[in-house]
Amino acid sequence: MIPIRRGKQIDYMRTACGIARDILLESAKAIQPGVTTGEIDHFAAELIKSKGCKSAFLNYRGFPGHICISMNEEVVHGIGGARRIQPGDIVKIDVGIVTKDGWVGDNALTVPVGNIDPETQRLLYVTEESLHVAIEHAREGMMLGDLCHSIEQCVVDHGYSVVREFVGHGVGRKLHEEPQIPNFGKKGKKPRLKAGMFLAIEPMVNMGTANVRILEDEWTVVTNDAKPSSHFEHTVHVTDGEPEIMTWRERSTTAAAVDKIPVA
Known about the structure:
By secondary structure, the protein is α+β, with helices and mostly antiparallel strands. It contains five helices and 15 strands. Strand 14 and strand 15 (244-245) form a beta hairpin. It starts with 7 loop residues before the first helix and ends in a 5-residue tail after the last helix.
């Protein structure tokens, strides 16, 4: 069953998601050349503590980090450590928090470090665009399959591939609730979305093959061909009108900027 939130529960979710968004954006600002991924994790951990919250990821099924931080060919579930960030890298950070009232906010973005390869910049744009295309389908009465299908269609139309082994999810009192939200799907496939559902929609898009593998740390997911991967996520409230992006932030890349990138 997919939980439906009403009244004060929606307010609690709005608070949790706002905190998660703020921590994500502040952590993104800390991503600079020479900084280690472990230092970013520590920075985020202190922010989470300062907000009176807990990490939704730390110790979740044994995960050792406060946030997920993944670089370049790493797709998701990267663990902060000694690796130093370099100019030209792309860094994916995923922040999930639990408030003192027990509500979860979850969101992610991909941060370019300095000037990055033009095709990688295009990959980031397409990933974020596919997220917003999907959000337009997060309306009462629409089918979840339509939302999922729209992500893959946007991605494939631009020549990229979606990761199939890892998916988005419902979110609220737990980090992972029903429904699962694949980044691919069949039009018209149920369930039908209802007002009060909260969806963590998170396209994971690869420049090359969709195939991935997990490293020896048993967490970090990487692309099989070592080509870059991009990840963006919002928690979205399904309403009887416009979808409410609970973790709203400014778009990272505009279409106009990408249009200026020369095609190889």
